[in-house]
Request: fold
Amino acid sequence: MAELIDDYKAIATKLGLPEMQTGSFRREETRDFASSQDALAHLRDSRPECGWLLFQSWQGAFVEGFPEIDDAWGHLLAADLVLEDRRSARIEHLPAYGWRVIVLAHDDGASGLWDRVTHLLRDPADAALHYRRYWTLDAEHGCVQVGAMLTSIETDPGRS
Reply:
C-alpha cells in the first residue's frame, strides 16, 4: 500500500490531484424507518452540525441547526449530515422498504485509501460540500470508489 501511495503522490503532484491517504470508513449504525417523518425525527435527534436535505419539492443545505421542515416539500428522498462526533449520517429512500439511515465513522487503521473532494453549493452561493471519498483495491478493476462521507460545509468568500 505504501508503494502505491508513493506512486500516486508522484502522479498527483504533476496533475494537481488530491492527496491520497490510507484508511477507510466503518459502518456504525443502520436503521430502517417506515415513514419519512420517523427518519427525519431520528436525524433531528442526532443533532447534526451541518448537512443537506433533498425532498420531492425542495433541496437545501444547513450549517447552523437542523432546519424546520415544511410539509409542502413532500417526502424526504436523501440526505447527508455531519454529526457532532464527526461521524456522518446518510439517508436513502428505498421505495419498496421505506427510509434507511446509515451512520459512518472514519477509521485511519482500516484497509483502503481515501482522498478529499469538494462540491460547490448553489445556495448559499459562497459555500462548498467537503467529502472524504473512499477507495479499495480490486484485482480486476484497480482502485474503485466504495463510499464517501460528508465532513463539512464551509464558506468560501471569494466565490460569491
